[in-house]
Amino acid sequence: MKLLGLLLAVVGWLIPLIGLGLTANTSTGARLTLCIVGIAISCVGIFYVLNQAHQKQAVWKR
Amino acid sequence: MKSSAWFRPCLLAVMTALLMCGVSALAQSSAPTPAATAPTPPAIAADTTLPVSGPSTDEQAAGDPSGTKTGTANDIVKADPSKGITLTDLVNQVGQNRIGINFTWTLVCGFLVMFMQAGFAIVETGLTRAKNANHTMMMNFMVYGFGLFAYWVCGFAIQMGGAAGTAMLGGASPLNSEYMIHFMGHDWGLFGMKGFFLSGATYDVGVMVLFLFQMVFMDTALTIVTGSVAERWKYAAFCVSSLVLGGLTYPLFAHWAWGGGWLYKLGANFGLGAGYADFAGSGVVHSVGAMTALAGALLIGPRIGKYNRDGSANAMPGHDIVIVLTGCFILAFGWFGFNPGSTLGASGALRISTVAVDTMLAGCTGSFAAILYMWIKYGKPDASMAGNGLLAGLVAITAPSGYVNTRDACIIGFVGGVLVCMSVEFIDRVLRIDDPVGATSVHGAGGLFGVLSVGLFADGTNGVRGLFYGDAGQLVAQLIGIATLLGFVFPFTYAVNWVIEVLIGQRVSAEDELEGLDIPEMGALCYPEFVLKRESVPVGIAAD
């Protein structure tokens, strides 16, 4: 789960990055959308998936 | 009759003269004037001696109470004193003065930023419990040394080794080597390769100024981490983690944004506004620190007693609100070096006044917003959140301070102040990540919003124009910066700290944590005459 969370975070970064090459110079809207999608995926990876994995072993649950 | 005989020719002559004058005047006003051929000044040779002199030795020996005999031609540095002042001497002196002003400005601002270490140290110590005060203070004290050492060895080279010239500091052109890859039709600068140990050609006056200023920025990022994992971080792990952050993680992102790397060139390569713009480091300094702080807090876990078995959170108030708020004042003072100093000069960068006022206003509205939020929601103006609101406003204005007007600075600071309150609650109660000083919220939420706000509020006055002023491309560049912080910096720094966890362990034992880290980790209490509250070891935890 921890690896999945990190992987999602990285994928969220790569989406707007690769999108720079795939979208034409004029399509700012497409780039903007890809950025927002990428950031959302990274946030899910870090704050939900990775955090959930850590919460399972949290000191207060023992 | 006689009189009329001579009168007529005279009248005719006068009229003719007037007519000629009129035609001449008309011709002068309507016809294109040939270019005035100003007399060519005599060519002055560069080694011409100028006919100027200052007060005599006798005049100066008499003293100068009015200041009119000090700072004269006598003070111009002459290449050949026997010849007097030449044109070359004069021009060189003007250049020296400009760079001298910029050196002085940048160095003094760097000294102010260095003093922020003291602010961070007492803010964090005040927000933790008395039994951990020595440990927290010592982390903040030594992070300066560890960070500085790692940055001198390799951090500066990675960050600025390919930054090329810095005109404000007289060139600094020895920094001219960058590792790049060619991808999607463009060159992507990844890291610098010159300036390790500040040796070779980087033994240069301009490079030294740049090093000092960038070093204190890097150290600011490092102090953020010590707050979020305070009261449970093993000191040895802190040492290693700080070395890696100062020598590798921070310089990598800083190179991309400030050292001529790929983020900086998003504008030139992909037509995205002016490229990623982060004037003084909401992203580079604060968000990088916050990403590491978040990774550390996740890996190390919450303090014993922070959460009950049902997941509800307990308040663990700090021990000294006086030093917390004093520290916030010190930080606000240091921020006048942080933001205005980022022009890297005063001569030729008079916007330092605007940057300073923006900084001041955003800090003010940030604390104002935090107080309002807490007062409305909880009925009392919370002191620690007022301090955090001030800091969040300052963090948020750090990136846009060079590009926005005062009205937008107020808005940015206010939003930053509200964001930090909401973020503290969210991280503490929903995510259940224990951050004793709210570092992730202040520097993460505030920092990322600061990066975003450049893409929204930049008014185009200084070459960067945001969405509200007509350039959506700049917003895209800023969002790519945010995506990089979340999707590269966080996983990278998490992986580094995970390796440290595996190799030497990050968390102290439960017994040590409950006793307080001053004796087990540092060997001495911060307040030896205090009677500290004893805590018992919960059964399940003691078994570990």
Indicate the structural class of chain A. mainly alpha
Kindly provide the radius of gyration of chain B, computed on alpha-carbon positions and rounded to a whole number of angstroms.
Answer: 32 Å
Number of E-type strands of chain B:
2
**Uncertain spans of chain A:** none
Low-confidence residue ranges of chain B: 21-35
Helix content of chain B: 55-70%
The SSE string of chain A, one letter per element, is HH
Furnish the topology, listing elements before pairings.
The complex is a heterodimer of chains A (62) and B (544).
Chain A: H1 2-22, H2 28-56
Chain B: H1 2-30, H2 57-61, H3 87-127, H4 133-160, E1 178-183, E2 186-192, H5 205-228, H6 235-258, H7 266-270, H8 282-300, H9 321-338, H10 352-378, H11 383-398, H12 406-430, H13 439-457, H14 472-504, H15 510-515, H16 518-522, H17 539-542
Helix pairs in contact in B: 3-4, 3-5, 3-9, 4-5, 4-6, 5-6, 5-8, 6-8, 6-14, 8-13, 8-14, 9-11, 10-11, 10-12, 11-12, 11-13, 12-13, 13-14
Question: How would you describe this protein?
Answer:
The complex is a heterodimer of chains A (62) and B (544). With 62 residues, chain A is mainly α. Chain A is 81% helix and 0% strand. Chain A has helices at 2-22, 28-56. In chain A, helix 1 packs antiparallel against helix 2. The longest helix of chain A is centred in the last third of the chain and has 29 residues, at 28-56. Chain A starts with a helix and ends in a 6-residue tail after the last helix. The mean pLDDT of chain A is 91. By secondary structure, chain B is an all-alpha fold. Chain B has helices at 2-30, 57-61, 87-127, 133-160, 205-228, 235-258, 266-270, 282-300, 321-338, 352-378, 383-398, 406-430, 439-457, 472-504, 510-515, 518-522, 539-542, and strands spanning 178-183, 186-192. Chain B has a two-stranded antiparallel sheet. In chain B, strand 1 and strand 2 form a beta hairpin. Chain A binds chain B through residues 6, 9-17, 20-21, 25, 28-29, 31-32, 35-36, 38-39, 42-43, 46-47, 50-51, 54-55, 57-62, and chain B through 183-185, 266, 270-272, 294, 298-299, 301-302, 304, 306-309, 311, 431-433, 472-473, 475-476, 479-480, 482-484, 486-488, 490-491, 494-495, 540-541, 544.
